[in-house]
Design a protein that fits this description.
The chain has 228 residues and is an alpha+beta fold. Helix content is 36%, strand content 19%. Strands 2-1-6 form a three-stranded antiparallel β-sheet. It has a three-stranded antiparallel β-sheet with strand order 3-4-5. α2 packs across α3 and α5 runs parallel beside α7. The longest helix has 18 residues.
Length: 228
């Protein structure tokens, strides 16, 4: 897909996402894109450079508002994007990382502009509560499935901390980090909390990511032992 490419290529970057409130009730369904998908598409087209610089540091006198500018250089031109983040526009756990969040949002906007994608990226949403509740309305073809165990007597077994670390490590190798990595996993697993990801699903996705990263067939089920 070329930057600002055809309609079908753009459609492949758009996902229907279900937004639920904290009680799990359906609020609305939106067409959104993901920073991870935008970055992958841009790399497939050839990316010369993607640089960022901090326009404003988050300080008490500006309401702790961080502003970052992204500059994307491609074969067809230069695209820019501004991203901002404040304690009011991110989840509580991300408040210490406002510059990183603003950077991700800036890069997402520059990538959307270059690729001609008009819908907003998940990472650009400023409602922290809604962002936490995002789940996919339907699983992607290659996404791990959170299906119920064949044996109903088996209890849900959550993924281990080391499996979680391995997932983030593998995504980092693909250039997906921080908030973008978290949202990628929430969407991939179809959950609104990573604590709801089963050990089996995490294992399968670790194997998939390792294969994509050229590490052969992984052994995600033993991530807690062999990928510490």
């Amino acid at each position: 897909m070329k930057p600002n490419g055809n309609g079908k290529a753009k459609e492949s970057l758009i996902r229907k996402v279900v937004i639920r409130d904290e009680d799990g009730h359906l609020v609305e369904v939106k067409n959104l894109t993901l920073y991870a998908d935008l970055l992958t598409a841009m790399h497939q087209n050839g990316i010369k450079a993607l640089q960022t610089n901090v326009v404003q540091l988050p300080l008490p006198d500006n309401g702790q508002l961080a502003v970052v500018k992204a500059v994307l250089k491609t074969g067809i031109g230069v695209f820019t994007g501004l991203g901002d983040a404040s304690p009011q526009s991110v989840e509580a756990e991300l408040v210490p990382h406002l510059i990183r969040v603003a950077e991700t949002r800036a890069k997402a906007r520059a990538l959307r502009d270059a690729l001609g994608v008009g819908v907003v990226a998940v990472e650009e949403l400023t409602d922290g509560a809604s962002l936490e509740a995002l789940t996919k309305s339907e699983a992607a073809k290659e996404s791990p499935q959170q299906s119920a165990p064949a044996d109903p007597s088996k209890e849900f077994v959550p993924m281990t901390d080391k499996q979680r670390q391995m997932l983030f490590r593998q995504l980092a190798k693909k250039g997906i980090e921080g908030e973008a990595a978290k949202q990628h996993l929430l969407t991939a697993f179809g959950v609104n909390d990573l604590r709801k990801v089963s050990r089996k699903a995490a294992s399968d996705y670790i194997d998939k990511l390792m294969k994509e990263n050229g590490q052969g067939q992984g052994n995600g089920s033993h991530a807690e032992a062999s990928h510490a």
